[in-house]
Structures are given as C-alpha cells and as structure tokens.
Automatic annotation (TrEMBL):
The lineage of its organism: Eukaryota, Metazoa, Ecdysozoa, Arthropoda, Hexapoda. It comes from the Eukaryota. This is Rad50/SbcC-type AAA domain-containing protein. Keywords: ATP-binding, Chromosome, Coiled coil, DNA damage, DNA recombination, DNA repair, Nucleotide-binding, Nucleus, Signal. InterPro entries: P-loop_NTPase, Rad50/SbcC_AAA.
C-alpha cells in the first residue's frame, strides 16, 4: 500500500519591537581590534547562569545564545594566509579597503557552515577559493553552545568548532568540541547541529554578501523584494514542500479512484456469480418446490371451503341467538317481568344511598365555606391594621421632612454667605480648568508643533542653501578653469606643447640646450602624452588607464619625472602578454606609440600587456568568474558601461568587481579644435547649471526670511500663551486651597428630634413586616381551604352525576318492561321468520361439509397439510413459472460446490482490497484536511508577517520623518517599496527608484531591519551596506544598525564596510580593521 507523507513545518514569528535613536548612550570602553595575519585573541567567557533567564544575578543582560559566531580562522583561503578573528557576541564592524579580504571572510562563513560554493556568487567550485600557490585551504568556525538549549552539552561542551578542509580534488569536514577533540566527521551531523540552532547561512537575509547587497541596493525590484520576504520567513520553502505534498496527494487520489472502480467491478462480478448460484440452487429444488406447491394448492382449496363454512357458522350463530332471545321473551314473560321489577327496586335503593352521601358531602362543603369566610374576615382585619401603620408612617415621614425643612430654614441665614462663596469659587475653578483644557493647552501644543515644523523646514532650507552655495562656487571655479584651458588650447594651435602648460616649450628648450652642453647622457623623453595616440575614439575618450597615466603627469601643473633605463626597442612581452579572447581587445594593441622608451614605461608601470578591454559585461563575467576561461597572464578586464562609469573585473580565484567614474583625459595627443569644442560644450553645461543654482538660491532666500519671521511670531505667541497658562494655573491653585467655615452645631437639637422620629419610623416598619408575615400565613391557609372546598365540590358533582345515571337506567328498565307487555304478537312473527332463515343456513352448511370432506381426502393423498398465506391464483402462477424453468434446463455448467468456492474466494479478495481501500481513503482524507489547514495557515501567516513587516518599516522611516509603506501583492508576488523623504512631496517621489543614493540606502537598510524583526537568527552579516550612500546617511544608518544591536542583545551582528568609521565607545561593539593581506 502506498503511503502518503505530508511535511509538517513549525513556524514562529517575532513581534515587532520599537527602535529609537534618541536614547542617550553611556560612555564605555571601546574594544577596537586591529586584525592582521596570524593574530589570535582569546574569547572572554561569561559566568554560567540559568539558561531560562535573560539577565544574570547582577542585573546585567545575558547575551549568551547558541549559534553565535565566536571566531573564524582562515588558512590559505583566497587572499588570507593565516587570519583569525574573534567576534563580539553582539555588534561587529569589519573595516577594510577594497581588496583587503572582507568579502572573503563572508564567503568562508558560508562555505564553512556547509553551503555550496554557488551561494557565495564567486565560484561554482570550492577549490577555486584555495590561495594561489597552495594545495589546501582550511576554514575553522567556532560557534557558541553555552546559551539556552545547547546541542548535546555533555559531548560538545560550551562551544562547537566546525572545520572544513578544501583540497584541489575533494574536501571534508570535522566537528570538534570545546576541548578540541574531534567528535564527528559526518556532514549529516553538521546539518543536525545547524538545524538545531536554526542557522541558515544560505539565507540572504541573514548573510548578505557583496554582490547581493550591491544588486539589492541598486535595483529594489518589487518581485525580488517579495522573493527576499519569502526567503526570510521561509514561506518559499514551506510552500514548495506543500506543493510537493499536493501533487503527491493528487496522484494518490487518482490511484484511489482507480481502486474504487476495480472494487465496484469485483462487487458486480460477485453479485453476478451469486445470482447464478441462486439460480442453480433454485433449479435443483424446482421439482420439490413444484410438488410442495401442488400440495399447498390442494390444501388452499380445502381452506377456501372451510372459510365459507366458518362464515355460515357465524351467521347461523347470530340468527340462533336472536331466536333464543325471542323464545325467552315469549315463553318466559312472567319471569322476565319479575327480574325487571327486582332490578328497578335495586336501582331505587341505590339512588336512596347516593342521596344520603350527597347530603353528607354538601354539609361538609358548607362547613369549609364558613371557615373560608372566617379567614377572609381575619385577613381584612390585618390588612386594615397594616394600612393604619402605613398611614402613621406617612405622618411621621411628613413630620421628619418638616423638621428637615425647618433646619434648612434655620441654618440658611448663617450658611448663605458661605455657600454663595463656595459656589462662586467652584464656578470660577471650573471655568479656569475648562479654559486650560479646551483652549490654552491645545493651542500651546499646536504652536509647539508648528514651531518645530518651521524650525525643521528652516534647517533644511539652510542646508540646501549652503549646498547650493558650495555648488555655485564649485561651478564658478570650474568655469574659470575651463576658460584657462580654452585659452591654452587656442594658443597651442601654433605650438602643440602649450597644451601641457605655458612653460613646457621653455622646458623642452632648456632640456635640448642642456643635452647639447653634454649634461645629459641621453635626451629625456616627455611629456608622455605627446607620444601617445589612440585611434579608437571610444577608448581615447573613456579609458581609465589613460586617465591614470596622465593624472600622474599633470596635477596642478606639477609634472612627474621618471628615472629609468632607456631602451632602443620595445620590450618583448610575448611570454607575459595575454591573448585576447573573442569579443575583447588588448590595451597594448590599442595604443600607438613610436617611442620605445614611452612604451616600455607603460609596460613597466601600468602592465598594459595584461589588461583587456570590452564593452559587454557578460563577456567579462564569463571570462573572469570561471577558472577554465581565464587567459594566461590576465590581470583585469575593463568594461565601458557608459560615458561616465566603467567596471573592472578581476579574475578568479580573487574574483571581484569595482565600479569607477570616468574623467575625460586632457593630455592625450588629440586634435586641438576638437579639444576646444569639447571644453566649450562643458563650459556651456556648467553655465546652465550655474544659472539654475542662482534661480534656486533666489527662490529659497525669501522663503528662508519668511520662515524666520514666522518662527519669531510663533515664539512670541507661544510665550504669551504660556504666560497666560501659568497665571490661570496659579489662580486654580489658590482657589483649591480656600477653606470654608462649618455652622452646623446650632442645629443639633433638631437633628436629635429627627433621629427619635426615625427610631419610631423603624418600629412602625417592623410592625408592618410582622403583620405582613401574619397576613401571608392567613393567605396560605385560605388557599388550602379553597383547595379542600374545590375537592369536596367535585366529589359532590360526581355523586350527583351517578344519581342521574341511575335514574336514566331506571327509565330504560321501565320502558323495557312496558315493551314486553305490549309487543308479544310482533315477537312471534319475527321468531317464525328467523327460524326459516336458520333452516336455510343449515342446508348450506351440510353441502359445504361434503365439499370439504372430498377436498381433504384429495389433499391428504398429495401430502400433509401446509399453512400458507398466499392465494390460489398466486400458487398457480408460481407453478406455471417452475414448469417453464424445468423445460429450459440447467442455467450453468458448474456444480454448486465449485461455484460456491469461487464466490468465497472472490469475496475474500474483495474484503482484503476493500480494507486496504478504506484505510488508504481515511489516510488520504485526513492528510487532505491537514494539507488544506496548512495552506490556510500559510495564507494567514503570510498576511500576518507582511503586516508586521509593514509596521516595522513605517516605524523605522518615521525616525527620520520619512513617510512610506510596503505594498505586498501576494497574487502577483510583488512587494513594492514606497518612500517619501521629509523634504519631498508626494507627487515628486513615486517609488524607490526616484530616491537619491543615500535615501535609497537608508530605505533599504530599513527594509532589512524590518525583515530581521519578523524572523529570528543567531547572527546577521551584512556586506557593504553603505556602498551607494553619502556621509550623512552612512552615519545615520550606522547608528541605526548599532541601535539594532543594542536593543537585541541575544543576536549577533557583523557589518562589513570599506569606509573607515569612528563610533562612541560601547562595550557591546567591536571594530575589526583589516590590513592588506599578503597575496604572494
């Protein structure tokens, strides 16, 4: 039997926790660690406490958690020969320039925790990560096992070290305990440890590498955002497993339907065989059945005659009874009269007895009636007493009210002034409070909000004006520089050397003079740009190599002097050059230079014989990312993406990509007119930009003055309203402290009298209650007597009804007695008629008896009598059918035993398959219900997690007064990010693509932190989170990530950045500064 397996997935979610960057930080010691090759620092151990608590005995928050990264040790891995990093259990910053090996640490983390090499986005094979010149690489990752719920603590201790050794041909794992002893070398054991500690190194939400971070920060595609959301919450994995279960369930449903059809066919087959068995059995008994039916037929004939005889007997008995009765009436007239007379006398006696009973019951009824009347009288007397007490009570209450009114009138003359003052003060107090709560305080709050808004707008405009002024000065300086360059270029039409500076012709003249005087052994060569030509305009204008060369030759009109040995011919680089694959060009072949000294200089300094150029990214990626495609001697490939940006690809095993801006080369040997034309176009653009900046400055200046004036007015109004509020609050305090005089002692006598009246009133109430109890008792007795009265009355009625019945019977007897005497002749005529009818029935009876005897004799010859409930016609029909079947012969060739065995075998087979079918159907239905429940749950869970994600994202944006939201579309599988910065309106920014680099980076980090708030993981690694941002947004994002680590002490964070940073000293932050690795 096929077994259907449904994957059960346990899901958990974390609540969204608030984040605040305004919290004051306490100054602590900043543990900054400079990480160099071969460095080793011991991890500090926390004192072991209860695993179920987050804080230790001293009140300090316990940051221990299983799965956190304690240290990473790399040997011969990528660019690192021997690197060891000890991580802080909370927040770590890995700082190093591009190429220092930051991303290598992230790749080692992913590979060391059992992931495939493809996850790193750097190579498809782990052996490509071995350092050049080495045959093996080793990754050692130590994770914590001393927090709540450790994995096999008796065996592994408080830490687990995972060692992955990579060779050129294979690789293997080793798992060590805290003492360094190898516990296991099985990959399955590693998977169990990672699953137990919920470590997902292949999840980009928890480990976001360089390429993924760059692409994510740049694109922010709704579909990719949604996929990241599914990956973070593991909904994609759950959905995939549920889909597999659904397909498997459909297959089993089809199999179940086929099995059901087979069972139905088997049931039909068994029914057919049973029908044939019945026909066979019936055929073998047809003769006996026919004989039995024949016997039954003859006895049914007997029964027909017996029924007729019985009917005649009934009629005969009826008429004979009437005849006997008439004979009695005729022959026993005197006796009947005597009997009737006696019965009449008995009825008279019975009536007399009943009349006596009636008289007794009637007397008892009158006695009960008298008792009821007496009870009614007593009840009336008690009710009158109660009414009297109530009237007395009313008089006392009236008297008490009069005394109270008298007290009020007596005290009014002395209390009026005090009461008037109290009421006046209470009204004033209520008015003052109402004025504060409904008028002044809301107005002051509104003024403060408006003032804060104006101050923030003023600060933003001042920042924008300063930025515009800086750009204005920069544009003016650039225009001045371009004017000088245009003048120099126009002058260089007559002398091309003037392009390199006004003093260049004089410098060359002095060099020639010094050489003629014998001061130089060989004439110096320069400037180099005069010897270089690039026939291809694309590379002549945009190639970064030329920019690097000429940038070294002219910076602030300071020329570089290079001392080298002059050769008369270009170096032979046939063994060291790279052969360009299809779609690429060698940089050395694109440069035309007839001077061998200059060409040798470019080979020595720039290695132009190892650099390839192309304009297609896919060609560069395919060549540099796959070891088999990398040409010999290749150092890098330059890809021209646009007029302003190009990419540099470095080949494996140190595969990486860098983007750079292109500055147009100024000192190549070019056409002067073209150079002048280009400078004038650039000048025109700068002048347009300068004009736009002036307009913006003119527009923002009046707005800033207006904002300052509004701020001054708001402040004055706020001070005025706050002063009024303080004055009213002082008045309220004064009124609340007023004390009032008490004049009630003079009225004590009147109050005492009222108390006496109240005591009398209490006694009256007690008397009323007692009378009420007595009245209720009388009422219950009265009700009992009424019940007795009703019963006696019913009994009297019954006796009366019996007397009337006896009188009716007496009348009938008198009437019958009269009828006997009057109807004697009529009875004789009726007797004669009935006698004749009895004789006729007697003749019919004799004839039927003869027929019955003859039929019995014939039936007894056939067989014993049978009792049957069918008719003669039905028996004849059955007999005719049996005779027809006997004429047709046997219905089947098999004998009865063989057919019965065949049916039994088929029934057993059907029962077995039916049991299998029922069990399978129950299992499939149960699993289908479970599958439906899980699909419903994952739908609700997806909505719940998206709601938590949206709430957290909006909350983080509000920290910078941004407005935005996440719009999940589960049907189209998209997650759109919408962000509106505080200095933009809704219409100007419609999506994340319209944001600046810093705003987009901040929004992206906010989105990642929102994802972190929805799911839990021991550690979070983020590479180059600040790659596209400015300094302000970078600082704010760093503070935001640091605050995330502060608020989640049970998590570990590591952030990789090429930018140096300075943070306030915190004991939960460690900064690792990576030095340039030894690449030889």
């Amino acid at each position: 039997m096929t077994v259907l397996i449904l994957l059960l997935v346990e899901m958990s979610h974390a609540s969204v926790k608030s984040l605040s960057l305004s919290k004051k930080r306490k100054i602590r010691e900043n543990p900054i660690q400079n990480v160099n090759a071969g460095s080793s620092v011991k991890r500090s151990r926390n004192t072991t406490q209860s695993q179920s608590e987050r804080t230790n005995i001293s009140g300090i928050e316990d940051t221990r958690r299983c799965g956190k990264i304690i240290s990473i040790h790399l040997t011969n891995f990528m660019c690192h020969s021997n690197l060891r990093i000890e991580f802080n259990s909370r927040v770590n910053f890995l700082v190093g320039r591009n190429g220092s090996g930051k991303s290598a640490i992230l790749a080692a983390l992913v590979l060391g925790l059992g992931c495939n090499a493809k996850v790193t986005n750097r190579s498809k094979s782990a052996k490509d990560f071995i350092k050049i010149g080495e045959t093996t690489a080793k990754i050692e990752i130590t994770i914590a096992n001393d927090g709540p719920q450790p994995f096999d603590p008796d065996e592994y201790g408080d830490s687990i070290t995972i060692v992955r050794t990579i060779t050129t041909s294979s690789g293997y794992y080793a798992i060590r305990n805290s003492q360094g002893r190898i516990i296991s070398k099985k990959f399955d054991d590693l998977q169990r440890i990672l699953l137990y500690h919920n470590i997902q190194a292949d999840n980009p939400v928890f480990v976001l590498n360089q390429d993924s971070a760059r692409e994510f920060l740049k694109e922010l595609e709704p579909s990719k955002n949604y996929q990241l959301f599914l990956k973070a919450t593991q909904i994609d994995l759950i959905t995939e497993k549920l889909d597999e279960c659904l397909h498997l369930h459909k297959a089993h449903r089809e199999e179940l339907a086929n099995t059901e059809k087979k069972l139905q066919y088997m049931e039909m087959d068994i029914a057919v065989h049973k029908g044939k068995l019945k026909e066979l059995i019936a055929f073998e008994h047809l003769g006996d059945n026919l004989k039995a039916l024949n016997i039954e037929y003859h006895w049914l004939l007997v029964k027909q005659q017996e029924d007729k005889l019985e009917e005649i007997h009934k009629k005969l008995d009826k008429y004979e009874g009437k005849v006997n009765e008439l004979n009695k009436l005729i022959h026993n007239k005197d006796e009947v009269n005597s009997i009737l007379t006696q019965k009449i006398a008995e009825f008279f006696e019975n009536i007399k007895v009943k009349n006596k009973d009636y008289s007794d019951v009637n007397q008892s009824l009158r006695k009960i009636r008298c008792q009821i009347d007496e009870m009614i009288k007593k009840r009336s007397e008690i009710e009158m007493k109660i009414e009297s007490l109530k009237k007395k009570k009313s008089r006392l209450e009236t008297h008490i009210n009069e005394l109270k009114q008298h007290i009020k009138e007596r005290s009014k003359s002395n209390q009026d002034d005090v009461d008037a003052l109290r009421r006046q003060n209470e009204e004033s107090l209520a008015n003052y409070r109402k004025q504060c709560e409904t008028s002044l305080m809301p107005l002051i709050e509104s003024l403060k909000r408006e003032l804060n808004t104006l101050m923030e707008n003023k600060s933003q405009k001042e920042v924008i004006i300063d930025k515009i002024k800086q750009e204005h000065g920069s544009c003016s300086h650039k225009i001045s520089t371009i004017n000088n360059q245009i003048a120099t270029a126009k002058e260089s039409i007559k002398n091309k050397m003037l392009i390199y500076g006004r003093h260049m012709p004089e410098l060359l003249k002095e060099i020639k003079k010094a050489h003629a005087d014998g001061k130089f052994s060989v004439t110096p060569v320069g400037p180099i740009g005069a010897y270089l030509q690039v026939p291809n305009n694309q590379y002549r204008d945009d190639c970064r190599i030329f920019e690097e060369i000429l940038d070294k030759l002219s910076k602030g009109n300071n020329h570089m002097i290079v001392t080298t040995k002059f050769m008369r011919q270009v170096y032979d680089v046939s063994n060291g050059r790279v052969l360009p694959p299809s779609g690429t060009s060698l940089l050395m072949e694109l440069i035309e230079c007839r001077n061998p000294v200059v060409m040798n200089f470019l080979i020595d300094r720039m290695h132009i014989e190892t650099i390839l150029l192309t304009d297609k990214k896919n060609i560069a990626e395919s060549i540099t990312s796959i070891r088999e495609n990398v040409p010999h001697n290749l150092s890098k490939i330059v890809v021209l993406c646009s007029d302003s940006i190009h990419l540099e690809y470095y080949p494996v095993p140190h595969y990486r990509t860098y983007s750079n801006k292109i500055r147009r080369p100024k000192y190549l040997h070019i056409n002067v007119n073209e150079r002048v034309k280009h400078l004038e176009v650039e000048k025109s653009k700068l002048e347009n930009q300068l004009s736009s900046l002036k307009k913006d400055l003119e527009l923002l200046g009046p707005q800033l003055c207006k904002d300052k004036e509004q701020i001054q007015n708001k402040r004055a109004l706020l001070e005025e309203k706050e002063g009024a509020l303080m004055e009213i609050q002082q008045k309220i305090a004064d009124l609340e402290n007023v004390e009032y005089a008490d004049c009630n002692n003079e009225l004590q006598l009147l109050i005492n009298e009222i108390e006496e009246r109240d005591s009398l009133l209490t006694e009256i109430d007690q008397g009323v209650n007692e009378k009420d109890l007595e009245l209720n008792k009388l009422k219950s007795q009265e009700e009992a007597l009424k019940d007795d009265y009703g019963r006696e009355k019913n009994k009297l009625q019954e006796i009366q009804n019996e007397i009337e019945g006896m009188k009716a019977e007496l009348d009938k007897l008198n009437l019958k007695l009269l009828s006997i005497n009057d109807n004697e002749a009529l009875n004789k005529d009726r007797l004669k008629s009935l006698t004749e009818q009895c004789n006729q029935f007697e003749e019919k009876k004799n004839k039927i008896i003869e027929l019955i005897n003859a039929a019995k004799q014939s039936a007894e010859e056939k067989g014993e009598r049978l009792i049957s409930n069918i008719t003669v016609d039905e028996v004849l029909t059955q007999m005719a059918r049996i005779k027809a079947k006997l004429q047709r012969g046997r219905p089947i060739d098999l004998d009865q035993d063989s057919l019965q065995d065949l049916i039994t075998h088929k029934e057993r087979e059907l029962e077995t398959k039916r049991l299998i079918y029922d069990n399978l159907k129950i299992s499939i239905d149960s699993l289908r219900a479970s599958l439906r429940h899980r699909f419903d749950f994952i739908k609700k869970f997806k909505g719940h997690m998206s709601m938590l994600l949206t709430m957290s994202f909006e909350m983080i944006l509000r920290l910078r007064n941004y407005v935005g939201n996440l719009v999940p579309d589960h049907q189209n599988k998209t997650l759109k990010i919408s962000v509106i910065p505080r200095d933009h309106d809704t219409a100007s920014v419609s999506s994340a693509r319209a944001l600046s680099g810093g705003e987009r980076s901040y929004s992206t980090v906010a989105f990642l932190i929102s994802l972190w708030s929805c799911v839990d993981h021991p550690f979070y690694f983020l590479d180059e989170y600040d790659v596209f941002t400015d300094e302000v947004n970078r600082e704010y994002m760093t503070r935001l990530l640091t605050e995330e680590g502060r608020n989640h002490a049970w998590r570990q964070y590591a952030f990789l950045t090429p930018q140096d940073m300075s943070l306030d000293p915190e004991n939960f932050i460690r900064i690792h500064r990576l030095a340039e690795p030894d690449r030889h």
